[in-house]
Structures are given as C-alpha cells and as structure tokens.
Amino acid sequence: MTKKYGRRGKLALSDVHLSVPAGRVIGLVGPNGAGKSTLLHLACGLTEPTSGSLSVLGSRPAANASHLARVGFVAQNTSVYGAFTVAEHLKFGARMNPGWDPVLAERRIGQVGLSAGQKAGQLSGGQRAQLALTIAAAKRPELLIFDEPAAALDPLARRGFLQNLMEFVLELGAGAVLSSHLLGDVEQVCDYLIVLCDARVQVAGDTRELLAGHARLVAARGEFDQPRAGIDVISVEHSGKHSSAVVRTGAATEALPYRSEPVTLEELVLAYMTRAAAVPAARTEAAAWGATR
Ligand SMILES: Nc1ncnc2c1ncn2[C@@H]1O[C@H](COP(=O)(O)OP(=O)(O)OP(=O)(O)O)[C@@H](O)[C@H]1O
C-alpha cells in the first residue's frame, strides 16, 4: 500500500505491507514526518491509499456505519468542541453511536474528575485528552486508535491517562493502536511494535519476540565495519577501543566470540531509526495492515 498527498507530493507511505494481529496494544513509533498519522488516518478511513488497500477488523475502514462504530479514534490534537460542555459531548456521543454505553461514560467522567457542566474549551490538555478517551471508549469499539495521545500531558497526567487506556482496553476487550514519540510509554503499555521511518515499516512484531530476537554485540573497534554472511547488523556505535552492534540474533550470531547483551526497547527502536536515516529506503519488514477478527 502507498499513500501520496497530491499528485506531486512526497510519498507519505511507501510499499507498506503490514499484517497486525487483532486484540493487541500496538505501539507505532518513528521520527517526525515518518508517516504515523497517515497510517492511522488510513486505518480509520479519514483518507484513502493512493495504491493498494487495507483492511481493518475484516473490512475497508469506515466502510459503513456499523464499521465506524467498531473503531474509536482520538486524533493528535484530541479534538473536542470548545463551546460544548462535558455533558453535551456525552449527549452528542450517545446520539451518534448506536452502541454508546452511558454508564461507562458517566463513571469514567467522574473517575477522572470532570464535571458535567464544564466547557471543553476551559479544560486543560490532560482533561481534554481524558474526555476524548472517554468518548472513544464509550462507543465500546473493538479497536481504539490514538495519534500521540499523551504528548501534551505532564508525566503524572500521562501515567494516569495510560492507566485509563489500559483499563479501557481490558474492560472493552478491545485492541488499541497508539503512535508515540515517548518510548517509555510504548514500553509501558504496548505488546506489539511497529517502527516506521521515512514512509516505510522498518520492523514490526511482538515486543517480547523482537527483544528476544535482537542483541547488542560488543567487539574490538571496527569489527562490524564489513558485512558478514548471516549477520544482520542493524546499527553500530564506536566508543574507545570497542564497537557495539545491535544485530538480529540467530545461529550465526550465537557462534561469534563476542560479548552479547540484551537490548532495551529504546535501543532497538533507535537502532532501526539510525539505520533508516543512514540508508534511505532501508530494507523493510514484509508486512498488510489488517486486524483479523
Ligand atoms: N495533508 C497533507 N498534505 C500534504 N502532505 C502531508 C499531509 N499530511 C502529511 N503530509 C506529509 O506526509 C508525510 C508524513 O506525515 P505524517 O503526519 O503522517 O507523519 P508523522 O509520522 O505522523 O509525523 P509527526 O510525528 O511529526 O506527527 C510528511 O512528509 C508530511 O509532510
């Protein structure tokens, strides 16, 4: 699948083949302009691919009213209507969504300390994010999509927001996709990772499997400068007499006489981002967006 904005526009997504399991909490990470919002907008039907296709929960995004009701989306700027009160937002949500759960909506509004009469325009960024999350969840969707949901929040509010998000996911039995620059947040809540750089998917998979399938090898300086058969070096750093490389592990790497250390999620993501920055259009993971449910 590809996505280009306008005839002469740059490719925002290039050759994305991604298949994502349903019911997971997926972290979508990548640098500014990587194509994260574009991918999320495609997934909820706000825009269409230029070529290829995608399927979410078994059909074309926003295919009809019932499909729209199955997906909840919270945009990057957590759009709420400034002149509407919290209660009016809930009323509007109830009118627009056949599966609206008024009990869930009112309970969560109380839990996060919002009151019915407050105007959304007078809420803080964190409170607006909580209101947007509540509205998305009260639809009782099967998939919640968030574009940088916690970016504007302070660390405490962010933790509360992410806890709420996880509670919703559990309570609804829903899957979720969230884009974020905050790798700590992704590590806290996501069990599946997609790294998108320069319009291409660099790597995607179960977070634990990805961490288990990569390692940092430490050797004498320059040891990783030449490519070696069977060893997939993602990125290399040099310090003093040593070089350390983040590699995909396998039979060939196990046989090497180098010190091997586990990688953190941050190291893994940075390694792929570094490789993509160094080699534009770096090798991509075979992958088709489509939750199978
Ligand atoms: N409406 C648009 N018209 C033209 N180009 C666009 C439009 N929206 C996005 N783009 C371009 O598509 C590319 C991907 O943008 P996108 O917003 O998807 O990236 P992102 O990864 O979400 O970035 P960020 O982390 O900064 O939010 C960028 O080069 C951007 O300039």
How would you describe what is shown here?
- This protein folds into two domains: 3-207, Rossmann fold (3-Layer(aba) Sandwich), CATH 3.40.50; 208-278.
- The longest helix is centred in the middle third of the chain and has 18 residues, at 155-172.
- Strand 1 and strand 2 (11-13) form a beta hairpin.
- Helix content is 33%, strand content 22%.
- Strands 4-5-6-3-7-8 form a six-stranded mixed sheet, sandwiched between helices. A four-stranded antiparallel sheet has the order 10-11-9-12.
- The two termini are 21 Å apart.
- It has ten helices and twelve strands.
- The radius of gyration is 21 Å and the shape is elongated.
- By secondary structure, it is an alpha/beta fold.
- Adenosine-5'-triphosphate binds at residues 5, 9-10, 12, 30, 32-38.
Determine the mean pLDDT.
88
How many strands, which pairing sense, and closed or not: the largest β-sheet? Answer: 6 strands, mixed
Number of strands: 12
Classified by CATH, the class of the largest domain is: Alpha Beta
Number of helices: 10
The proportion of residues forming helix, as a percent range, comes to 25-40%
**Beta-strand percentage?**
15-25%
CATH topology of the largest domain: Rossmann fold
User: Ligands in the structure?
Assistant: adenosine-5'-triphosphate
Overall geometry comes to elongated
Which segments are poorly predicted (pLDDT under 50) over 5 or more consecutive residues?
283-293
